[in-house]
Amino acid sequence: MDDAQMLEDRLLRLEGLQEVHRLIAEYSHGADKRELQRFLAVWHEDAVWDVGVARFTGIEEIAMAIQRQWAAQPVMTHWAANISVDLALGSTRAHALVDTDTLTQLTSGDWLQSAGTYHDVLELRDGHWGFVERRAEAHFSLALAPGAQEEGRDRRTDSGRSEHPPVHVREERSPGGR
Length: 178
Known about the structure:
Radius of gyration: 20 Å
Strand content: 35-45%
Helix content: 25-40%
Number of helices: 3
Mean pLDDT: 87
Distance between the termini: 47 Å
Number of strands: 7
């Protein structure tokens, strides 16, 4: 392989890594902001989304699944961290591990804070990177105590102290969780 080809391959790898990181962020933005087209744009048509308790195959099933999540969870916010991407030089297939912390409000008004890891496979097809599989591994969910949050803000008294007692959590381990 000559130097020019090596540089081109290295540049394509860097562009691929950047695109994988962008897609990981776009997944969360689309889900949290309830932007269906933005959420669906990260997937290839035949992708698989495995949320742990159910598995959805193809863009139509994925679209229906996220809309059901939105109906059951009026608020969700994802934070992605510890993103590790494996993309070999010259490859069009990437594997990623992404830790996630998610704050979710249920239709009952209850709040959950959950942690887990996404196991991702992404591919470059026809010049476009996208998820071919995203599998969620839940580590645990913590139910926030009732009254811990009022309309999403902490009310302060004139003394600067909170009107509410500190947030207490009730741990609910998922099957196979740590």
